[in-house]
User: What shape does this take?
Amino acid sequence: MGFNNKRATFMAKKYASSFKSDLDLRQRAFRNVVKQDCNVDISKWTFYRTRNKCMEQIRCSIQDQYMLLYNMLLYNYCEQLKVINVDGTVVLDDHKTGFRRLCIYLAA
Assistant: This one.
């Protein structure tokens, strides 16, 4: 069991670009690619574990990109509101997990 997980982790790192370019990569096609590259036959379960690890990496990278965008754009927007509307209040409620709420009180 442990060996297959190590193999799946190795293949997830090596073939992540294949899964990113084709999210619906078929089992047989992937097994043929691995057979040609490494001269190794892999089981269908190793393929499924590899695909799941790759999909997890893709989801995490997308979430990280949104967090960077959020941190950069939303924080800058709040700072600009504070500069433009000096008497107003801007409250940004965020945590490590992400954005929760934004309250803007404009001065009249």
User: Anything to note?
Assistant: Strands lie at 89-95, 98-105.
